[in-house]
Amino acid sequence: MRTLRTALLTAAATGLAVxxxxxxxxxxxxxxxxxxxxxxxxxxxxxxxxxxxxxxVRQGGxxxxxxxxxxxxxxxxxxxxxxxxxxxxxxRQTITVAATTARAKALAAELRSALETCLDRLKEQDPGxxxxxxxxxxxxxEEGAHVYSIDTSYPEVGSTDIxxxxxxxxxxxxTVVEWGQLGELxxxxxxxxxxxxxxxxxxxx
Length: 205
Hints:
Helix content: 25-40%
Number of strands: 7
Shape: globular
Number of helices: 4
Order of helices and strands: HEEEHHEEEEH
Mean pLDDT: 87
Low-confidence stretches: 1-22
Radius of gyration: 28 Å
Strand content: 25-35%
């Protein structure tokens, strides 16, 4: 009888332990890391006489070619992608994911300021340079994007270059889109570039 009673008590205790374990909620699985912002594809660049080719997405920023905004975005959290055509036309998209929305907002403001003062800084570095810079308006998408144009020339050699630039933000992500070719503003695809800017910001998240 004692053996039977011991067995029953053991079975009861085991059953209570199993029930107690079953009632303990399982630890919540860690939330998956958010997907990184998406880049433009070659087909989303402004129309060109020859097709665009998209390079790979690379880590960090790239100072070569980004004369107005080089060194502003932190290397950590920044990636870039270059595009080119068979003619003298090129483009670049840079995306930075800041630690907070406030830092992203500050970064976007700093990049806009750099574009607004870029031509004056270039003229200080090269007194032979001439040009015009214009603010081309806001694109209403997410937290907004702003478009600029900078037209430069060297009268002594007769060369002219036109660059289109935009800064846009969606939450913690800030993107800069740059487009440039030989020529003047009259020949630049301004409306196509604004459409590209809208797409670039919309694709961030």
